[in-house]
């Protein structure tokens, strides 16, 4: 009887430790998320499964071209994944030819391969606050991003983390390139 109680207690403690570690990992270190839609094509595809790094931004600020995850403000349990284009304090503008300008200088980037057809809010200069980021999907003409007033500028406090590793599909398994 004493041995049985000891086994039950030992198993209970083991399960409690596993549950606590799982909680810490999910809430503070990383979490799995799934890409829904094509807004990040060709970098990320519909149904890709990723691990989001939730630690890096506790110690460092997000950088231009980082792929970040943040909640959509108008739908519960809906998260967006986009690339940072504009940093705090910068002014973002997209001209009629689809060229992105940061503080008056054309942005050199190779993520959005198509000509931007709709500049949205950025057809007029958008100046970011000290804690705001301008984000866009890589599939520029099929992305709801900072150009859309429903998304707007993304606050630093809303960024959950950066996309880190693609875990599914297995053929594409690996660490994601941001820069």
From TrEMBL:
Q: Which PROSITE patterns match?
A: SPASE_I_2 (PS00760), SPASE_I_3 (PS00761)
| Keyword Membrane found | yes
**Transmembrane helix: is it a keyword of this entry?**
yes
Boundaries of every Peptidase S26 domain copy: 13-168
Catalytic reaction annotation: Cleavage of hydrophobic, N-terminal signal or leader sequences from secreted and periplasmic proteins
Q: What is its main location?
A: membrane
Spans traversing the lipid bilayer: 12-30
Supply the EC number(s): 3.4.21.89
Keyword vocabulary terms for this entry: Hydrolase, Membrane, Protease, Transmembrane, Transmembrane helix
- Out of the domains of life, which is the source? Bacteria
Into which family does the record put it?
Belongs to the peptidase S26 family.
Q: What is this protein called?
A: Signal peptidase I
Source species taxonomy: Bacteria, Bacillati, Bacillota, Clostridia, Lachnospirales
